[in-house]
Every structure is written in structure tokens, then in C-alpha cells.
Amino acid sequence: MSHDFLQVDDLLTDEDRAIRDTVRDFARSELAPHVAEWYEEGTLPDDLGPRLGKLGLLGMHLDGYGCAGTSATAYGVACRELEAVDSGLRSFVSVQGSLAMYAIHRWGTEEQKNEWLPRLATGEAIGCFGLTEPDAGSDPGSMKTRARRDAPGNGQSDWVINGSKMWITNGTLADVAIVWAQTDDGIRGFAVPTDAPGFSAHKIERKLSLRASVTAELAFDDLRVPASAAFPEVRGLKGPLSCLNEARYGIVWGVVGAARSCLEESLAYTQEREQFGKPLASFQLTQRKLALMTVAVNNAALVAWRLGVLKDAGTLTPIQVSYGKYSNVRAALDVAREARTTLGGAGITLDHTVMRHMNNLETVMTYEGTEEMHLLSVGGQLTGIPAFR
Q1: Does 268 share its domain with 226?
Q2: Rg of the chain taking only CA atoms, in angstroms
Q3: Domain for residue 172, yes or no?
Q4: Gap between the Cα atoms of 94 and 249, Å rounded
Q5: 139 is in which domain, residue-wise?
Q6: Residues recognised as catalytic
Q7: Each residue's pLDDT tens digit, 341-366
Q8: Which helix (H) or strand (E) holds 68?
Q9: Are the beta carbons of 161 and 227 closer than 8 angstroms?
Q10: pTM (two decimals)
Q11: Strand partners, 162
Q12: Taking a C-beta distance cutoff of 8 angstroms, is the pair 161, 181 a contact?
């Protein structure tokens, strides 16, 4: 019998299922055979952006400017099928579409949209999102990166940015960086070309998790950009947090794919591997593990689908995203850890997927808001008492 006990995909539209099948076929045939090698080498192929862009996956849930304009649910399904192969692949798409592209689409000028969005949608250009700093993770409002106005004598008021950002996905690959900085007028966002003088990116090495993903530190040393680089309207944390909610929504779906892959490998392995003259799957303790993993995967799939319905209806709230990000990442990590035990020693190698997923999910639990912050957000909603301010 299938492990899809709740038949959640039966709730999808025909268009959503068609997108699911296209992304799944691409991910399994074009990405899965190579991802263990990319993970081991700590890299991604140079042509990944254009290949994903050709499928219409970059900024797929945005309208206009070369973007596909799909439903939020279709975007979630695509994230799920990419993360079923590796979290780094979904992370690439999340950062490009839900952070860099969404920031420009939601807060940028028409000039910024026309300059960047069509190229970002095709993967010709790559974007990154600079919010987190070495000393400002869960508390982005305390960021030290600062932008000040400076008139260079040509009658125009440039911005000069100094500071740094940490743990930036796609940082060394990016053609444009969305940089958030303190100003005299509050926190503001800037679309910064990465070839601007004073901008540098340095790849973070020796990672033990999310290795099939490029992570960097960004540094700004008197980085000068024109006034037209600034997002004109948004002030404060409203801008970056709106982008993070978009990316967190993709995570809610994505981790279901990682958990599903771990369950499927555990099922296959325990039915083939024999001990004491019979398959591992015939033992009661193994069946208990398989049953608990199946419940977790199905429940997480249902949460993702429900949030997709709410998002497509325009009623999804940040607290609901926090609920889903916490519950689904925690469930996926628990499934990955349990699946690893069913493979025994084989489970720690790159010949199998479970420990790679398990390591990746340790990072997914931390980025885009730690599980502590999401739990406190839910607690604050319940009690009316903000516990971290």
C-alpha cells in the first residue's frame, strides 16, 4: 500500500499536479543523480540557474516581468519536489524567487523591476538577500550595516553603505544583492549590483550541512550606489520580514519532500535488508518506526496544503507561516533521524539520502527564523505577551 494515507495530492488542481510531475521528473532525472557529488564537493553547477529558469521555477508565483504567475500551491509543490532531492536546490529557488525577486517585485521601483526581474526569472542573473549579520540573527533590528546619503558633487544623492552580512545563500553567485541597512530614516532596502566598487563576497567553507548550496559573507566597504538603488517606500522591518514570510512558506512545503524521500528509502531498505532470516520490515520495532514516520509525513503534507489554500485565498498570516515552518521542519527532521536508524551503518554514507537530508534539515531548522522564534511567535499570539521583546 502507498504511504500516502491522506491522499493530499488528490486535493491539488490539475495544473498543480502537472507542475508537480514536470518538476519531479526533472529533479529525479537531472538533479538526483549528481546531488551527492555536489554535496560532497560543496558546490552547485554553473548552469543550474538557467536550467531552473527554463522550467519557469524562478519567481514562479510572481506576476509579470517574465514570471510564470502560478498559484502559491503550485510554487509549494515545486519546492517539495526539489527538496525531495536536496534542501540546497529548494534553497536556491527560494532565495532567488521568494527573497531577491519578491523584494524587488513587492517593494522596488518600476525601473528596478524592469532591470532585474526578467533576467532573474530566466536565471541569466542570480540574486541574493542580505539581512542576517554576524551579531544580528534572530534580532535583525539590531543590524549594524548602515547606509548614509552622500552627494558626490554631481547634484545626485548617492548612498554609501558600510557593514557586512552573514550566511547569505548564493552570495558569491549573485549579480544583484538585496541589502537591508540602517539609515537616518529607519531600515531600508537596496538593490545592489554586485560589481559595484566596495562590494565583496566570500564563500563560507567547511560546512557540514546544506553543502549543495553556496553560502557567503558579504562585505560593504564604502559601497556607493545611486539613489535609484533604494526601495522608495518601505521602512523598518516590514520589508525584509514580508520577504522572509514568502521564503518560509516555501520551506513548509519543501521539507515535506525531504521527509518523504527519507521515508521512501527507509521503506525500501527495510523490506530488502534481512537480519535473523527475515526482512527488517517484519520486526515490530521497525514497523513502529515506519508507521510513525508515515503519520508525520502525511500530517506535514496536510499542513502545507492547507497553508497553500490560505495563501491562494489571500488570507495567510505570518503566525500561520510560523506554525507551519516550525511544525513541518521539526517533523521532517524527526523523520530523517528515525529513517537513518533503520539503515544502520549504511545510513551514514552518501550512497543513501537519509543523513544528507538529516544534516540539511539542521540548517533549515535554523534559517528563516529559528524554531525558538517561531514557537515564541505562536506563544505570543496565544497569550498576547511578546516573550522576546
Answers
A1: no
A2: 21
A3: yes
A4: 9
A5: 127-235
A6: 368
A7: 999 999 999 999 999 999 999 999 99
A8: strand 67-68
A9: no
A10: 0.96
A11: 146
A12: yes
